[in-house]
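yo

u said u wanted the structure for the complex thing, so here. seqs first:
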Amino acid sequence: MAWKITRSREQDAVDVKTQGCSIHFSTYMAKEEDLFYSEHPVSGSEDEGGSDEERKHHKLLEAIASLDGKKRKKLGERTEASLHVSEFSVSSEGASDKIELSELLQPMKVSSSLKKQLNKVKQKAAVELPLSKEETQRIQRQVAYEKASKAITKWDRVVLQNRRADQLVFPLNQEPLVVKPIEEVLTTWQARTPLEQEIFNILHKNKQPLTDPLLTPMEEASLKAMSLEEAKLRRAELQKARALQSYYEAKARREKKIKSKKYHKVQKKGKQKEALKEFETLKMKNPEAALEELQKMERIRIEERMSLKHQNSGKWARSKAIMAKYDQEARQAMQEQLAKNKELTKKLQVVSDSDEAEVEEETLVPASINEVQLSADSSNPWMLGKLGSDAKDSGIEEELQEPPILSDTGTKNIEEEEKELELSEEETLLQEFEERCHLRKQQQKVEDGEMEQSNDDMDPEEGQTSDLEDNIKDQQMLASKDLDHSGKPEELERSPTCAMSSDVNGLEKIADEPSVREEGPFLMEQLQRVQTVEEVGALGGEEWAGGEEEQINPLRREEQQQTVTTVPGEKKKRKKSSLINLKSVLSASSHTIKTPTLPTTVEEEEEEEGNQKLIIKEAFAGDDVIKDFLKEKRNSEQAGKPKNIDLTLPGWGEWGGTGLKPSTKKRKRFLIRAAPGPPRKDSKLPNVIINEKRDLLATAHQVNELPFPFDNCRQFQSSIRTPIGATWNTQYAFQRLTVPRVITKLGHVIAPMADEDTFLSTQTSQQTKPAYALNPRKPRTRR
Amino acid sequence: MAVGGSETEAKRPVNVGGKDKSRTVKKIKRYWDESQTKESATDTPRTEEPRDDGEKSAEKRKRKPRERRQKRLGGRKQMSGKVDLFPGPASIPQQKIMKFERGEKTKLGQVSNRKLKGHLKTLETKVKLAKTQAARFDLLLPEEAGFLEGDEGEDTCTIQQEDIVDAVDITSGSKHFNLVLNQFGPYRLNYTRNGRYLLLGGRRGHVAAMDWHAKSLMCEMNVMESINDVKWLHTENMFAVAQKKWLYVYDNQGVELHCVKKFNDVLKMEFLPYHFLLATCSATGFLQYLDISVGKEIAAICTKAGRLDVMAQNPHNAIIHLGHPNGTVSLWSPNLKEPLVKMLCHKAAVRAVTVDNTGKYMITSGLDRKLKVYDVRMYRLLHSYVIPFGASHLSFSQKSLLAAGCGDTVQVYKDVHVKPARKPYMVHRVQQGVHGIQFCPYEDVLGIGHGEGFTSMLVPGAGEANFDALENNPFRSRKQRQEWEVKALLEKVQPDLITLEPGILGEVDFLTMEQKHKERVERLGFDPLAKEKFEPKHKKKGRSSTGQLLKRKKMVAEEEQRKLIRESVEEKLQQEKEKKKSEKMALLGQKSALDRFKK
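structre next:
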């Protein structure tokens, strides 16, 4: 059975385009074909029922087609069986180009279900033409872009934050080093690893503190037990004891090193004697104690007997025994030993001397040392104190214990003596102090007297100068002293005007004025008690300034009124006529100053020669100075004014020539008046000329363009108004003001930000914080 | 101990009664609670003792901050470190902060750019921080200045130097001394900026440099010429001497380093430390500036004012003040050939000028025997005094004490610029006429050069008590000085920047800006910064008819006008208010006699 398959090219194309969507019918067919071909390698055109008619007809058609000249592609005709069958060589033959499915199925037995399927396939419209490659790519790009941009938006916040941040520290996400109180660390910390948990369990079981109070109940109790002072005291005691011990040890060592036998012998004998004596005295005084002592000795004897210590059975003794044959000394030593043994084992009524000494040696060491060593089972000296309220008791006990020991060594006595000494010293100090106070008081009294004397002395000194003024002055002072101690100003005051007008007869004035002044009312002085310039103004300065003047010369008062610069009413007047009042500005009311010592001589100035001329000038031409100044000021004002432009052309439109001037009308017409410039800075200051010229050298350093983001000059100026240098700021402020924008750490890899960082940075804005901030904040944990 | 226990109990936030009340929230039982409750139980009888209500309330108050803190910590007990009873940083009084105020705050409401707004905001916070920090650290200035106070009825000016020397400690007492140098005429003197070294220059050629604390002489010589003035340069290694003809520079061993022949007939000198400039004024009427860091003459200005022998510098802005025989004082900078300001101060020749450390007040004295206090910012006279014989030399101390040398006495005044002084603060007499005075920086000492030599006078409260070791360290070592020298040279201020207003660098050059803008507008043909004209939006449904458009335009225009009017009216009101106020004040001032007691 052979199949005749002709497939339209379109169908083929559809197959290609809709690949992957659904399994197309034709593909099935193709598969079947393949199977078929493998069995019968026959070309499709070679039909079994190869009708010759058809072939003929075909050839005819070809012939006809070739007639019209157009070269048609020949459909290959296979004549031989071959393995390769080109689908392009398949031609559709028949009336209609399209093949119907039903046709294809004709030879098969068509089941109803298959038919249904076929119908379904038929009903489907033909698939549209696919888009071109460029178009599809464009669409794909668009979609991808949208997706990507959406994904990227999550970074927006981070980026913005980092841009705004004062400082960025790379690598990011580092836990900043902050000092935190240990409580916070502990409370946030949790046991995670099994090891930690195990440890926690153990701690729980043993009632150890985990987080909060940090101390065990024992520790707490111990803390309560001993206050710091007590502990200190105790420590000091211990230190002392230790020191004593070490001294003693050193002494013993030193003595031990002494090789002289005689010395030791003498020492020993001395000790024995002493011990005996003591025992005797003890017997007399305290028979019980003596008995105890005896018992102690008995005990030692018993122990000796028990121990077999001195029976020459030890290692040393054996070695000595070998040597004894040849060595005299060794023999002697052995004998000594034996003698000792005998001595010890003998039942005695009398004390054995050497042991007594030993005992005494032991007792020489203060008992507190031993006690400490006993109780110092833990290395912590703080724990030595007894718990709870026992601390006090133990202290008391110690106190009780100590005296006898001290009395033994005699240290206590010394201490007491020292105390007494200290006391006496203190007393003497106090006494001295009192004496000094007393002396000082006396001295002061004397000094006061001297002061007065010296004051009195000073006056004659001044008097010696034999200047007219000084004499007057001294007299005044003396007079004033008599009048009242508080001191009404008996000054050598001169009105400014009088000082100005006549320096020649000034001296006479001085002589005259004080007498008048002395009569001045006391109220005047009250008026003078003005403290600030404003108050002066408010009071109407002329009143108090000229008050005294008035009495001297009432005529001058009007003049004087002008002199006051700070009276508000006056101010207005001056504004109107500033130039007139320059004099008044200069001759403002001046305070006269009273001094206890006046210069003795008229100055012998070195510049005298140079100044001579000036002095004369000053004496005679006080007004000239003012006039000159006003002139200068006017000139400078004129120079600074913007100039008018005169555009008149002489002789234009009227007669011209020498001696002829253009008419005023014309001049007026062609004169371009310059706009009046801004008011001068010194327009309200009559005695000042301020230069209006620009300092070009300085302006070269100024900013002359508004920097970019600022709206106006003021904004910019205020932004740079504070200095940021270390000279003007504290260290911390300086660091804050000059934080670097980016900090990178040496040797650290700066990795690009990870995805999770976006999430984190929304939670906290850690980057905005400077790297060296000390205030504790929650660290950013990375999970 | 018992008392301590009760106290701790009182302070403890957890007490038994409280626990019973808060039954609703069951507290987790801790092992340490037990001991506490036990203890509290033992202590309760003591606490239950009857107490005064006042005591209780006091205790409550005591407890408060602690409780607040406890609340903040979430009821936890802080064991590490001591408990802070006053949590948070200590508050600083506004007054102190005001001291460090620099200019006006930026108004953020008017900022259009959002980014800029953020930037300015952070900047403002930083500025505030700097301010408060500075105010806070003011506490660290340990030394306090004090002045002489007389007993009742005793004037401070009557107190003699000997009394002061007796009263003060030995070290301070040793700072009062006399150098009897009666051979080589009246002395000029100069202290270094740290107040450690003293330079004396006798009229007849004697020059001596010494460490006056240790009283050890560095060098001494006679230049065999008359000396007009002496001045230390930036360190104690060099000094300038204005001799009869020329200006010489010597080192601290007295070796002549330079003879500057361009500077002849110099009468007075001033050294500007931050600019490394030596300003000199000569008998020929020249004001010259020598840059001592490069040895170049920066400016030579012919003042055309005759012999110049009165000179002072304003430490605030490095402007030179010159006094003239015609009673004027002129202010100079090296950048202009004319005086910046000319003031007529006296009717007679000016004898001495000085400017205080803040650069606000200028004091002049003239041949008319007056002493005048001027505010140099306003060029206004504040006070005027008549001094017997007038002052030939003036000097301001760091703490604004004024020393005036009159003949053979030296008078020291306190607060002359603040309120009118009646009496001098201190007076001292020397053997012969005073020829030079200067307060020693960072010391309560006034150096007086006179005909008989030199006198170091004790003036309590004259010097700044706290020195800035990075700026001027009286105790600096050689190495430190070298370090400082290098830094100072690096930070040298150019002479171009000497202006009346030292803050000029922080300002925009408005005139140039305007000019530039004008040029730009000409070049472009339009104003790029001009406000855009209102263009009504196109709207549909007949709302963009000509009439409607006009209406909309008008609306906007009117709105703008209204804004303008509102502003102008407000301004006027403000002005009126002020006017009324001042009038009222004036009226009051005239009216009642008792008003003078009002503040």
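Strands of chain A lie at 168-170, 591-592, 645-646, 671-672, 688-690, 742-744. Chain A touches chain B through 123 residues (CB under 8 Å).
cya
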